[in-house]
Amino acid sequence: MAAGPVLDPRRWPIWRGRGAVIGLPYAWLLLFFLFPFVIVFKISVSEMENVTFRDLVTFKDGLLALTLKLGNYTFIAGDDLYFKTYLASLKYAFWTTVLCLGIGYPFAYFMARARATVQPALLMLVMLPFWTSFLLRVYAWKGLLSENGWVADLLVGTGLDQLLLALGLISAPGKLMNTPFSLVLGMVYTYLPFMILPLYGNLAKMDLRLLEAAADLGATPWVGFWKITVPLSKAGIIAGSMLVFIPCVGEYVIPELLGGPETLMIGRVLWDEFFANNDWPLASAVAVVMILTVIVPLAIFNKYQAESQEART
Amino acid sequence: MTVTPNASGDSAFLQIQDVVKDFDGYKAVDHVSLDIAKGEIFALLGSSGCGKTTLLRMLAGFETPTSGRIVLNGQDLAGLPPYQRPLNMMFQSYALFPHLTVADNVAFGLRREGLPRDQVDARVEAMLKLVQLTKFAKRKPHQLSGGQQQRVALARSLAKQPQMLLLDEPLGALDKKLREETQIELVNIIEQVGVTCVMVTHDQEEAMTMASRIAVMSEGSFLQVGTPGDIYETPASRFVADFIGNVNLMDGTLAVDEADHVVIDCADCRHFVGHGITGTAGMAVTVALRPEKIHVQRHKPVDDFNTVSGVIKEMSYFGSFTVYQVELQSGARLKISQANTQRHRDDELTWGDPVWAHWSRSSQVVLTQ
Fold this sequence. Notes:
The structure holds two protein chains of two kinds. Helices cover 73% and strands 4% of the residues of chain A. Chain A is mainly α. Chain A folds into two domains: 4-11 and 16-66, no CATH class; 79-278, MetI-like fold. In chain A, a hairpin with a 2-residue loop joins β1 and β2. The radius of gyration of chain A is 25 Å and the shape is globular. Chain B is α+β, with helices and mostly antiparallel strands. Chain B folds into two domains: 14-241, P-loop containing nucleotide triphosphate hydrolases (Rossmann fold); 249-367, CATH 2.40.50.140. Chain B has helices at 52-60, 102-112, 117-130, 146-158, 176-193, 204-210, 228-233, 238-243, and strands at residues 14-23, 26-36, 41-45, 67-72, 75-76, 87-90, 164-168, 196-201, 213-218, 221-226, 248-257, 262-266, 270-273, 284-289, 294-297, 307-317, 321-328, 333-339, 354-359, 365-367. In chain B, strands 6-7-8-3-9-10 form a six-stranded mixed beta sheet, with helices on both faces. Classes of the chains: A mainly alpha, B alpha+beta. The interface between A and B is medium-sized, with 19 and 25 residues.
């Protein structure tokens, strides 16, 4: 915002009111995200001393000392378990996002093009799963995919498990649980509404006359879809993808319940470091690296988006 | 305007044959037939909901006629989807693609034809030159003014060299001053390209200035089809007379019915009409009289026919002309429009003045429906 209007005394009260409204969520984020993050970061560079952490800043014999222990980071960099786990997390999050987009886009599209009277009902159906605990729903998949579950029976009966085996998503025929397949299935199932809702919001407000104009100029419905609908829904695609990708990277519950030994994700490693090994500094370092791997590319991407938005107006 | 409907053509360029469009029992277009010649600019004129847009959308292929045929240049358009029809449309408020530049908007249709790149570029350049937007090729639509967007839409719809151009309220989104300038510019471009054109408008002025022929539509049917002059000077019905321009409508009865003249008795005067009509003495008719055909003066005219007296109740000064509303003896009001040919009249008429109004024997139109 330019400095001019803010300094204009006539606009002061308005500005102050608006500032409060905008400031509240920022204060919230500061208090519950940035501040804890600083604490986590502090722990990650601290040394354990029996049960407590040694102070970072010490003053002894007239010597002010700042002690930062970087060993945790060098350890993470040195042990390729962490690197592989980060990579696996990004990989599963990526495929989950791609599948959610592939399933969610047609879903949102037909929802947005449905008769106006049935749209609220369809929207309700998308949100209905939220009425049951997420934990229960993920747990239910355990039953559905285990040996006598009907989904498993169906997949084995139709021979689809052979296909999954060929794709390397499961390791033995008929064994669906605790595989990359069950993990990604669970994540897609859980995060699909987060893809559909922003896409629906975007597609529903699209001007359909643009498609008529495209058809009039010789575009078949298929070409009109790719040349007009998809580019115009870019904002929805980005929003939905972020809402799916970011939480998937750090997902703990789904890999824990549906994943297996080969699907180690960073959330699981974090848990182990914190609660099994009780190595808080190392666990914090893992968390810091995870946040940075997600946030830094997103921040760059957002900046680029904002700049291209700026260029448009 | 300059193009006259071609009367010599064997079969018309566009034939609309007994077309009906039924929306769940509501006939938006009701048994409409029309022939349009090559090179014509034809206007469908009517108020909203009269079916003009539905008819245009059936030409473009966005609606399917319930019954009837549409034949363009010998080809029946039935069953052809919009993207295969050899005609293009300029949409109301333009429907420009917001994510594409001006040049890409114009190129959109050409790329669908699979033209080689250099031909597309050359054609886009020619179109932008035609509408004088070469400088704006790289801009996005929202960076343009309303008039510029209108020209992009025109360039886009002409780029494929369609056999027919459809215009849906082409100037509806522009303000009055710009609209008047654009009307002439638009007609010039259309005539330069030589494309046959069907436009839809609710603005009679737009239809009159731009079109070579007009169809006045109401409730899904054509009330009258003709040149702007025909429709204005010889309206076929009360509705058309009232819809196009200003008019005084006077109900009366046919008193004298001769081959070369008729006399009609109305509440305030006796009309002498200098031509015969098809009717019988005693039947109820309506006399339509345009305000600019009436002369207003202080003294009683010589002629007993076509003369009324009254008092000026309202005056509206428009600069080039003044409209008087004169209250007649029966209480009815007569609208009279006088051109202000002198800067200061010696004897200016004003509110409350008793006046006489008079018109010639060929000014009236006798309406029987």
